[in-house]
Structures are given as C-alpha cells and as structure tokens.
Amino acid sequence: MEVSVKNSFICCCFLFLTLAKMGQCNPRCYVCDTMSNPNCIQPRDHKMETKECTPGNVGEMKVAVEKLGVMQLANFFDMEIDRSDFSVPLQCVKTVIKDNDKEMIVRGCQLAPKDNLDVCKKIKEEREDIVTHCSFCNENGCNSTSFLQTSMALIFLLLPVLKAF
C-alpha cells in the first residue's frame, strides 16, 4: 500500500509539472547584447534575469542591432505587432553577428517562425556574410548557450523516477 501512495504522489507531481508547463503562453528570454553587456556571452552563468516575451518587447531586438551599428540587419527585426495582442506566438531568439572581425551576440524575443515568416531563415538567406548563427527556441531561458546541458541533466535525473514505473 505504501508503494502505491508513493507512485500516486510521483504521478501527481509529474502531471502538475506537465500541466504547469502547458499553461505558459510565451517563454521568458534573455534580452541582451554582448557589446553593451559582456555577460550576455553566458547569461545563465552570470545569473542574468530573463524577461517575459511579450509583444511590447519584440522591438528590443531591432534597437539592440541598431546599437551594434549593423544597420543592414536592423530592418529584419522591424516587426509591427499590436502591443495589446497577447495571442501572438513569440519565441526566444539568439543571433550571432560577425562584422569587421568582431563577433557579437544578440539575444531577445521575436515572432515565432511560420511558413511565410521566419526571421532567422530570411537573415541566413540574405545576410549569411555577417550572420553566423540565428535560432529560435520556446523554453524559459533557452536562448542561453548552456540550456541544452541543463535539459540533459534534468532528463538524467528523471530517468530513475521513470524507471520505477
């Protein structure tokens, strides 16, 4: 009987965490650039705060790229979004730009890629000469370089629990 209660508790915890995860609309992203904040290279290691990805902060990517002086890329991040429309699907983005032998990282929030609109795909196609990396992700803090390591560690921690079933 004691094992049954323990298994029920574990199942309830797992279900709660799954449902809590499903309830999230947009992720929390690192919003920074390496020119104004060197900690942006490894934001998780420097315990930088994430920001909720909202229509209101999508424009920050364009501003960050303009600050870097890479004006030819700024227009790619010029998105007109109704700031009050929270149904717009958004994701975290990480972009690595190499211009004049300087490598810069910009992390932020953008419209989620769709068939007819994918900022990273368009940038890679049109500006592969200066953009060495551009990717989207949809988990809290996922636009940090160490996110995959954290996810893998979590999987290995959960394996013994799942094996018990």
Main sheet characteristics = 4 strands, antiparallel
**E-strand count:** 6
Helix share bin:
25-40%
Beta-strand percentage?
15-25%
Low-confidence segments:
11-24, 146-154
Radius of gyration: 19 Å
Describe this structure in words.
InterPro entries: QVR-like (IPR031424), Sleep_regulator (IPR050975). The chain has one domain. The protein is globular, with a radius of gyration of 19 Å. Strands 2-5-4-6 form a four-stranded antiparallel β-sheet, covered by helices on one side. The protein has a two-stranded antiparallel ribbon with strand order 1-3. With 165 residues, it is an alpha+beta fold. The chain has helices spanning 2-22, 60-67, 71-74, 119-126, 147-163, and strands at residues 28-29, 32-33, 51-52, 90-99, 102-111, 131-137. Strand 4 (90-99) and strand 5 (102-111) form a beta hairpin.
List its traits.
about 160 residues; four-stranded antiparallel β-sheet; two-stranded antiparallel sheet; 5 helices; about 35% helix; globular
Quick synopsis:
By secondary structure, the chain is of the alpha+beta class. The chain has helices spanning 2-22, 60-67, 71-74, 119-126, 147-163, and strands at 28-29, 32-33, 51-52, 90-99, 102-111, 131-137. The strands form two sheets. The chain has a four-stranded antiparallel β-sheet, covered by helices on one side. Strands 1-3 form a two-stranded antiparallel sheet.
Fold topology:
Layout: H1 2-22, E1 28-29, E2 32-33, E3 51-52, H2 60-67, H3 71-74, E4 90-99, E5 102-111, H4 119-126, E6 131-137, H5 147-163
Antiparallel strand pairs: 1-3, 2-5, 4-5, 4-6
